[in-house]
Fold this protein.
Amino acid sequence: ADDGLEQQLFRVDLSSSFAVNGILPASSVVTSPAPPNSNWKGAGAFFVDDTDTILYSYGGFERDYDPQNSMAMYNTTSESWSTVTVSGGNLNQGDREESMYTSSLGTDLSLSFIQGGYTSLMGPGAQAESASATNLTGMITFNSSDASNLSWTNSTESSNAPDTLGAKMQFVRYGRSGVLVAFGGFNVCSIHKRRNIQMLNILRYTVTASGDIPANRDLFCITMSSAPDGSSSNIVMYGGWTILQNRGWQDIYILSVPSFQWILVDATGQNQNGPEAIGHSDMSCHVYQGRQMIVLGGAWNRGSDEIKDVSCNAAYPSVRALDTTNITWALQWTHTSEPYQVPKAVYKRIGG
């Protein structure tokens, strides 16, 4: 890319062992070329199929293009790219900065969802600071259950749909088709409080949460693990950024569903204020074997100032691993296969 953006796909080999409390060793990172003419910007989303082996690259375009009815597809088994056509209209659009998205992993539904965010309308040669931004409405539902007949729809019928930036959404296995749980983020009118949780199914409604309500924030990350008996699902939230306080966070909360109680399980950094507050935001989180939360990338801040050159500073790790049962940060990645158990702080509060 002309502006120095990395046009590569990076993979971390989780079958190896490596330190996760400092600099990620180069030997643990595998790079693959991006598909031809990908024009990636780094936003957007990867949709996944129910086998968790096929990635579909949605949005994230570096420049402004007309909406498309196709996506780049990456097969993690053959390590190869191809282009696929999707029926339902030209719905692949823009860079989709700060959108919320999730997939129905752990089920046979093969559905992925993306909502909110914005696109910077930049023509060839335009500068980012002069570009206008347009909030994107509606929720895209992508169906990959039939690889030879991919489809998507754009649902815009809900008048109370959360028009948010920097929020997060999680698919929860509940009932026959599951539900989507969305929270956080902001728009030009208001900050979306952690007490108000959006539930999306055939109908959309708001649930009022209780417990240790987190400070309002966006650009955090989440993963989900389910109790062994299936009685509850626990959404782990890490870090984030509060725009009104101009500071980041590195605390950890759990939202337990269906009780919708927030539980503070790690208060790291909460006693820091003003220019001394250290925070981690805009990272991505992924769950491994239902128990390990892997945190990749993101920005580290001291107060409102971004900490530079963190890739070479072990104090601000580029990759972290959290045991979501014991709520402890690992020093070494060992790809544990121990099953998930409900954390003590959760079952002491609500059972499970």
